[in-house]
Amino acid sequence: MLVAKGYRPVDRDQQFLLPPDMREWLPATHPVWTVIEIVGTHLDTRAFHHDRRTGGAGRAGYDPDMLVTLLIWAWSRGVRSSRQIERACSEVVSYRVICAGDAPDHATISRFRKDNHTACEELFTQVLILAARMGLGRLETIALDGVKIASNASKDANRTEDGLRRAAEAEAARIAAAAAAAHAACDDAEDDLYGNDGPGPGQVPAELADPATRSARIAEALAQLETEKQDQDADRDRKAHDYLSRLDAGQTVMGRVPVGAEVAAAERRLAQAVAAQQGVLDRFRDAPAAGRGRFVPKPVDEHHLVRRRRTELETALCKHRERIAAAGQRRRNITDPDSRLQPLRGGGWLQGYNCQAFTSEDGVILATGVGTSPADYDYFPDLVDKVGKAAQLIDATRRGRTLPTDPPPTGPDPADPTPEELIGVMLFDAGYCSRSNLTSPGPDRLIATGKSRDLEAAAADDPIAGSAPPHPHPDPIRAMADRLRTEDGIATYRKHNLGFRRFTSRGLDRARSEWAFHAAVHNLGKILTHLTGGTTLPATT
Question: Are 479 and 473 in contact (CB under 8 A)?
Fold first, then answer.
């Protein structure tokens, strides 16, 4: 006899919703167990223990290894809010397993992350070493890419220098008014308690005992503006002096005129054009009438070169005036003074940082960098140096050697391979293209000279057979454009990005540590994926 199916019972009064053994809560193949094992036995986490105090009276603290594991697991799931992590530790089984049922509160999680930003950068190196021991980090083709990441600050919190000074005055007035009001209220209350002449327990208002962080941020932003102005002025004057000295010496100076030398250089070129044409007129006037010929030179002011040089001078003066006006409009953010307005590729602006990541052929992040300059080419030298050291670290790890954190005083071991020998080719988009980046020492590189679709079109419409042009152009940018038209060049150049959109902390140092921590989590994800293919974790030493 057939019986109609009912529903599965929902009994919330049962004694056990989960097995009493926590290891039965999740299958042994669940990745959380692997992350716990990696942090506990394969990574050197001593940096996270360094400032932790144990012993003595008081409540025992949380194990730093557990907190590191918790942050890695949360970030790998796209959860970065300390409050969301705290909630997950009570509601999500994998999080409960990590903290063994003893869930830390959001303040503990946030404080641990902020207090260990230096250790987070060291963690990136530890994970990279583990990835190398497992055979990850292929160096045949590596690529550098930049992405603008939002800071924990609003664009609306930007102020000009004048605006910052007005804000500082307003903040000082607000604190003074609050202090006066607090004292008045305190006096009235004490008069009621003790009488007009009675003694009272006078208290300093909290705002005066611990000045508001807003005032400190405004002061920091003003100091940054002043320091930046002095540095920019010194750098501009140095470059201008060098350029004008070579110009006065009669040297042919190629390239763009430095900002501080534009007006002076234009004045010199105008004076040279006037003198040259005046010389032609003087020679014409002094020549015998019979030898003058039919050609009559134009007056100085009507000569085409003089008119062009005069236009160039007017343009330089106009730019100089605009630059002076713009200098007073330089801005700083009073929420995160280190952050800057960053232009976005699709249009618009973002308050944040320019974040760089060098990625290997198999997707492992080899080196990271964070800065405030919106121009990618500024990061080229530092990131190429970092990725060279990362390549040597990977090579030494695979050969069973351990490289010291600091280079030995005698220099690198001549027997160690150089970055040029370890790295096949480095790929860069057009944001890194400059003559200095094309010609600087280091591994072989392909730097785009335009947009990807234009490179593809040039390679299809006017291809060059082979791997290199037969006659390289003397200009490095033209030479690179020709190389990208070759079959090998355009085939090698193709690339990527990461799922990170906003920093949780403020300040450049913490942004760098968060970006490095994100890269470490990304690399751990690559390790977990690699393990699903049958690979096992290396034996601990």
Answer: yes
